[in-house]
Amino acid sequence: MSSSFVVVICHGSYHTPEPYRPFQDALKGAGIESYCPQLPSSDLTKLNVGDLTNPDYDGDIPAGGYPQSSDDLVSINELLQDLIVKGERNVIVIGHSSGGFTATACVIPELQANVRKKCGLSGGIIGIFYACAFLIPVGDSVNGFFQQKDGSSPVVPPYCKFHAHGMNGAASTVEGAKYFFNGLDEAQAKKNESTLTTSPILKTI
Predict the structure, then answer these.
(1) Which phi and psi angles does 92 have, rounded to 5°?
(2) To which H or E segment does residue 91 belong?
(3) Is pLDDT at 115 greater than 80 in this prediction?
(4) Cα–Cα distance measured from residue 175 to residue 10, given in angstroms and rounded to the nearest whole number
(5) Angstrom distance (rounded) from CA 66 to CA 41
(6) Is residue 205 part of a domain?
(7) Which residues form the domain of 72?
(8) Domains contained in the chain, number
(9) Which of 5, 66, 71, 193 sits in a 20 to 30 Å window from 114, CA-based?
(10) Partners of 171 in beta bridges
């Protein structure tokens, strides 16, 4: 029996959909349809890294700059338009890590189920689930949330490192199995680590 709602996952920085597959399989086993699109901010095809099988994170900054949270939001909103406006589906949005910013920003009134119901429309977002997610204050960005407000030197989290362009460029992960997947057995953690990519500083407000 299918569920009365579907799940849309907004993944975190450096991630691909791959580490979320076991979770999606579990949802499927419970009759719950789910979607986890690759978001632009960690999509190697959009980050000018050359050979995708051996990416060069020291390459030139892409023409037009690196994808931002605003670009991730466009991808999620396109999916939500299909599911809600065209499909009249009820949706729970999950935000993981920096995907919490995207999950929050996508829940605009016209896509909320209670607002749509008042307009005589079916479907809509019925909730957000934050999984180890950033809850960014209004008017701040993912990066701004990390940084000191007194102008001190930038904070670089221990799980990432920057490359040729410093904080104007992109960061890749350090010890991904340890910092991102330490609740899994070693083999699965290492497998998931191998799927991590790179992400730029996220400055969308």
Answers:
(1) -105, 125
(2) strand 90-96
(3) yes
(4) 22
(5) 7
(6) no
(7) 6-137+147-200
(8) 1
(9) 71
(10) 162, 199
The angle subtended at Cα 157 by Cα 174 and Cα 107, nearest 5°, is 105
Helices (H) and strands (E) in the chain, counts: 7, 7
CB 113 within 8 A of CB 125: yes
Q: Is residue 23 part of a domain?
A: yes
Q: What's the CA gap between 175 and 178, in Å, rounded?
A: 5
Which residue reads 């829940």 in tokens?
Answer: 107
The answer to whether 13 and 97 are in contact (CB under 8 A) is yes
pLDDT for residue 151: 81
pLDDT at 73: 98
Rounded distance, CA 10 to CA 96, Å? 6
Place of tokens 């008017």: 139
State the CATH number of the domain containing residue 182. Answer: 3.40.50.1820
Span 45-72, average pLDDT: 95
Helix (H, G, I), strand (E, B) or coil at 153: coil
**Order of strands across the sheet with 34-35?**
34-35, 6-10, 90-96, 124-131
Q: Indicate whether 31 belongs to any domain.
A: yes
Q: Is the pTM of this model over 0.90?
A: yes
- Judge whether 129 and 44 are in contact, CB under 8 Å: no
* CA dihedral sign, ordered 176, 178, 180, 181: positive
Rg from Cα positions in the chain:
18
- Please check whether residue 142 lies inside any domain of the structure: no
